[in-house]
Amino acid sequence: MRTFALGFGLMTLLAACAPDSPMVGGPCSYESSIITATVAEVEEDGAVFNGPEGEFWVSASYLGTPPKVGDTLTLRLDRIVEGTCTPEIFSVIDPDTGESE
Length: 101
Hints:
Blueprint: H1 2-16, E1 29-43, E2 46-51, E3 54-59, H2 60-63, E4 72-82, E5 88-93
Antiparallel strand pairs: 1-2, 1-4, 2-3, 4-5
């Protein structure tokens, strides 16, 4: 019985590595845009912004220093167009230099 279980486990592991199985993850392609948005609400884990397309949420991990309500930030939004990676990635942009802070 032990041999059967070991053999079955090995077969399952090898089947998961089959080359015809669909790839999960990359390669991914993103479309980038620069947006200016105003902070509407700040929470411990992120902030709600009002931008050209309405309200949207940005995680604190993308913001660095927490903004204050009423602050206007320039953000680069990388939105996925191909693949199954992170759907949206935000970066705070210094409006004077155009580079990420």
